[in-house]
Design a protein that fits this description.
Number of helices: 7
Shape: globular
Order of helices and strands: HEEHEEHEEEEEEHEHEHEEH
Number of strands: 14
Length: 263
């Protein structure tokens, strides 16, 4: 398999999709809710997913596709070549802020990440990686993550997990918030993951993420030494929703073992 050929094609269609999203701001959107009132989907989400499906099938009909909006295939395994796509990660930000959202694409072969892309559409920043060849933001290489202690770390964390909730014991999370240097929450898992990969943050965790939220970003972050797992320190599952943490390798274990207590 020529990864370089797939890489060139993937970058091309991602940038085309970004152009279409930017153009859409002059149009009136159709906005609907999905699982709850804060889980939004627009006609642009669906249009972009269909665009990817058509382009991928034109490239190679044997490639499988998992997409957030459900227009790809219902697959039970990661055998073969699988594209895992989120057409707009951070739809609430897309609708309300017109920024802080991204296109996420991960390409896996027999379950192994081979290519990863996160496109910050409004900043025109394309994060990308090929397995074993390092990670980049546009043409700039991302550096290997350097050692850091937890008390100097910035972590990505939704504030609700440090309050009483049904998923995780909040008291240790409060201790974690007090331990670290600072917390951030951007509303896009893809952008939070590449913030860890680029060293702007040192960890990001969430209680419920789907494969399309993480597939592209994990591939990129792995290339700079980040560690990704679920919150029980088990390998990530790209076929179903799960808890998630990605962190600088020097603090991943400390966070999971000392501050995470799932209910």
């Amino acid at each position: 398999m020529e990864l370089s050929k797939i890489d060139v094609y993937a970058k091309s269609i991602i940038l085309q999709a970004g152009d279409r999203i930017r153009q859409s701001f002059s149009e009136k959107w159709t906005i609907e809710t999905k699982a709850d009132a804060n889980d939004l989907v627009t006609n642009i989400d669906r249009e972009i997913e269909l665009f990817f499906i058509e382009k991928i099938r034109a490239f190679n009909t044997s490639h499988k596709i998992i997409g957030e909006e459900g227009m790809g295939e219902k697959i039970q395994s990661l055998d073969g070549v699988v594209w895992i796509i989120d057409p707009i990660d951070g739809t609430m930000n897309f609708v309300r802020q017109h920024r802080n959202f991204a296109i996420s694409v991960g390409i896996y072969v027999d379950g192994i990440g081979k290519l990863g892309y996160i496109y910050d559409v409004m900043r025109d920043h394309l994060y990308h990686a090929i397995e074993g060849q390092g990670a980049y933001m546009n043409d700039q290489p991302l550096k290997a993550l350097e050692e850091i202690s937890l008390d100097k770390a910035i972590i990505g964390l939704n504030a609700v997990w440090a309050t009483p909730n049904k998923r995780i014991k909040h008291e240790p999370m409060i201790e974690l918030v007090h331990k670290v240097r600072g917390t951030r929450s951007y509303g896009s898992a893809a952008l939070e993951i590449v913030s860890v990969a680029s060293g702007r943050m040192d960890a990001y965790l969430s209680m419920r993420l789907s494969p399309w939220d993480i597939a592209g970003g994990v591939m990129i972050a792995n290339e700079v030494g980040a560690i990704a797992s679920n919150l029980e320190n088990q390998p990530i599952n790209l076929l179903e929703r799960d808890t998630f943490i990605i962190a600088n390798p020097f603090i991943h274990k400390e966070i999971v073992e000392n501050y995470i207590e799932l209910k």
